[in-house]
Amino acid sequence: MTRTVVRGGLVVTAAEEVHADVLVENGRVEALATPDSQQWTADRVIDATGKYVVPGGVDAHTHMEFPFGGTASSDTFETGTKAAAWGGTTTIIDFAVQSKGAALREGLDAWHAKADGRCAIDYAFHMIVSDVNESTLKEMDGLVGEGVSSFKLFMAYPGVFYSDDGQILRAMQRAGDNGGLIMMHAENGIAIDVLVQQALERGQADPRYHGEVRKALLEAEATHRAIKLAQVAGAPLYVVHVSAREAVAELTRARNEGLPVFGETCPQYLFLSTDNLAEPGFEGAKYVCSTPLRPKEHQAALWHGLRANDLQVVSTDHCPFCFSGQKELGRGDFSKIPNGMPGVENRMDLLHQAVVDGHLTRRRWIEIACATPARMFGLYPKKGTIAPGSDADLVVYDPHAEQTVSAATHHMNVDYSAYEGRRLTGRVETVLSRGEPVIIAREFTGRDGHGAYTPRGTCQYLN
Q1: Rg of the Cα trace of the chain?
Q2: Rounded mean pLDDT of the chain?
Q3: Is 208 exposed, middle or buried (0-12, 13-18, 19+ CB in 10 A)?
Q4: What was the pLDDT predicted at 424?
Q5: Please, which residues bridge with residue 396 across strands?
Q6: CA-to-CA distance for 377 and 259, rounded, in angstroms?
Q7: Which of 233, 278, 331, 349 has the fewest CB atoms within 10 Å, measured from its CB?
Q8: Is 302 helix (H, G, I), strand (E, B) or coil?
Q9: Cα 338 from Cα 341, distance rounded (Å)
Q10: What global pTM score does this model have?
Q11: Closest CA to 173 of 221, 136, 224, 148
Q12: Which helix (H) or strand (E) holds 431?
């Protein structure tokens, strides 16, 4: 392994900002020192003068090669992890899927087979549990022991991923005992299906009705119910992709009561709105995801939640479907539009823009994008920070570079950008993954198979 020094940058972590040189050896951060205090020799010197040196991003919610609605998300582990690296993310946690009637192990093995030898950056897995039964519950114990320590359940999608309250309670009880963390898609899917049917019967079939039937109150109701079930079970809860201010209020109330309840939001809810879903023609289909985009007035509550730590993590829920041939499956019936949006390449830049715009501090940017997801899912301090002994997942970030987001220049395997034409200040310049250069001065130098599967510990906020 080569010895690398990253010189002259402002090192920004969740804990501090310091002008320091970073010494990398054998894939780890060896030491930090103030400039000129050490005359380190190295095989590779990276000049970060005038730039930030930040930990590689940890995106705790991605769906590569994810089957949904008769198709599958368009990014493979190969294309998706390359795009992540271009956006300054060096670890993803993807979702392995249990099929109804099958074992958890079967689903996990299938996802290992998809990812093995194909990733440009490191990766880990959560487990989607779509069939809660005695054998599934037993399997959960074993998976926690081998580093798959979080389990996603759905209150939405009846007939596909849906679990009823009894199944959810049993899974939560098991997680309370084995140290696992339940991740919840909190929407009242049974009620939503009624509203979908009624909308279609009225001839309301355009993409914008996707947002209108998946009501904020049904997200809030499900969030409240999930919190109470977790409280009964004596288990922690992590609510994914929070989009509605009413749901934020439920999380805030629970946290004020001292409950181990956590919330994640995504860039699309912070930067996009129902205005996008209502774009003319069929353009709104590009923005169909669940939970759905909300009216703009919800954004203030999400930003406040991030500042006040009522929301702890920003992940992408990256689940891209091409407009041509995939999103178009729902022409004439919004309920058939594959749910999901691309974003793994845009997250770090959009959140830096939030720093520029005054929504977040620099340290909070790194906290919600790197450190907290690493702690939440048992990867810290290996991931999520820059400290001696940590993996040398480093990003040299130019805070002054300007860019215009476009499908013409992004690296995600999808034919549109959700942020097309948006001007951003700040851009990734160089990325190291475990000390190996993946991007150097905006040139991709990585390789398939460099990315390693990374077993996880349990949630570090519960000890």
Answers
A1: 21
A2: 97
A3: buried
A4: 98
A5: 53, 430
A6: 18
A7: 331
A8: helix
A9: 9
A10: 0.98
A11: 136
A12: strand 423-433
